[in-house]
Amino acid sequence: MEKTQILVIGRHPEILATVVRLVNNNPHWNATGCLSDEEAIAAFPTQDFKVVLMGGGVDERSEGKLNEYFYNRNPNIKVVQHFGGGSGLLSAEIFEALNK
Amino acid sequence: MAQTILHKANTRGHADHGWLHSYQSFSFAGYYNPQRMNFGALRVLNDDTVDPGMGFGKHPHDNMEIISIPLEGDLEHKDSMNNVAVIKNGDIQAMSAGTGIFHSEYNFDRTSEVKFLQIWIYPNKRNVEPRYDQISLNLEDRHNKLQQILSANPDGAGVWIHQDAWFHLGKFDKGLTTEYTIKKEGNGVYAFVLSGEVIINSETLSSRDALGIWDTDKFTIEAGTDAEFLLIDVPMKF
């Protein structure tokens, strides 16, 4: 079974690494972590991402730019503002996004 | 007309990690219930018991207002802002995770359990500078009255957070009745019973039951027995 691809964007390297590790704890999910807008834009076409988690430190300007780019390329993409950072909320947030 | 939602204690999620027993009012970690995602800006209410000397190792958070209220025993806190503290029953701790913090929380005691509430509130502003606050409360100030322990205002009683939220604790003798006025239009209250029996809007709540109430500006609280409870007043839309 193909894994659900999840793009995680965050500015704090250690928190990003934690979020990616926690997402990957689910054997059905695969996370790609990006620290910068440029990395995220480059990574987006390389996988069939279903969910984007917009993590800590991403300011409104970047978020707007990234949202526009992601929705233009894939109108069905689910972009979620991720709160809590590498925390117990992660799984439920992803389930909610996938079920929308 | 007031709307309510009843969460009985035995409908909460439960995680048993050996050293940690956690009862979760809302979806958290391995507990996922789409009907239990949040109550307005209140996202997490975990009722945790930690074995002696055990605890949560260093781990990160961002963009969340995190409040800990010890109910029994002492918690040892360390964080990436160089705060080292022991939080005991009667204290309240608030952290704004903002752009990111790392922290650990351990049971300070080597012989007895620590019981505490871990509460997470969505912030009203993302990426704020992380901050830590801890105060000791006067337990007498909640006897037969409501004691404000948290607010949105840095100058208000209790700790403060980045959200239009207010917390009150009450320790009422049987039969005492009081009226609570919701602090801000659009807010609702999640009333969580710590012990005894509390009656709100004709609903009798027992220990660890909760009632969410919104679309009203006030409601009445009656102690059916000697009782302790926590009121969490939060925006329903945020």
Topology:
The complex is a heterodimer of chains A (about 100) and B (about 240).
Chain A: E1 4-9, H1 13-24, E2 29-34, H2 37-43, E3 49-54, H3 60-73, E4 78-81, H4 90-99
Parallel strand pairs in A: 1-2, 1-3, 3-4
Chain B: E1 3-7, E2 13-16, E3 20-24, E4 42-50, E5 55-61, E6 65-72, E7 74-79, E8 84-88, E9 91-96, E10 101-107, E11 114-121, E12 131-136, E13 146-151, E14 159-160, E15 166-172, E16 177-181, E17 187-195, E18 198-200, E19 203-205, E20 210-214, E21 218-223, E22 227-235
Parallel strand pairs in B: 13-14
Antiparallel strand pairs in B: 1-20, 2-3, 3-4, 4-11, 5-10, 6-9, 6-11, 7-8, 7-10, 9-12, 13-15, 15-22, 16-21, 17-20, 17-22, 18-19, 18-21
Based on CA inertia axes, which overall geometry of chain B fits? globular
Number of domains of chain A: 1
- Structural class based on helices, strands and sheet pairing of chain A: alpha/beta
What's the overall average pLDDT of chain B, rounded? Answer: 96
Beta-strand share of residues of chain B: over 45%
Tell me the distance between the termini of chain A.
21 Å
Poorly predicted residue ranges of chain A: none
CATH topology of chain A: Rossmann fold
Which chains have the largest interface?
A-B, 25 and 25 residues
* Biggest beta-sheet profile of chain A: 4 strands, parallel
How many H/I helical runs of chain B? 0
**Helicity of chain A, in percent?**
40-55%
Proportion in helices of chain B? under 10%
Query: What count of domains describes the coordinates of chain B?
Result: 2
CATH class of the largest domain in chain B: Mainly Beta
Helix/strand order of chain B: EEEEEEEEEEEEEEEEEEEEEE
Structure annotation, total helices of chain A: 4
Strand percent estimate of chain A: 15-25%
> What composes the largest sheet of chain B?
7 strands, mixed
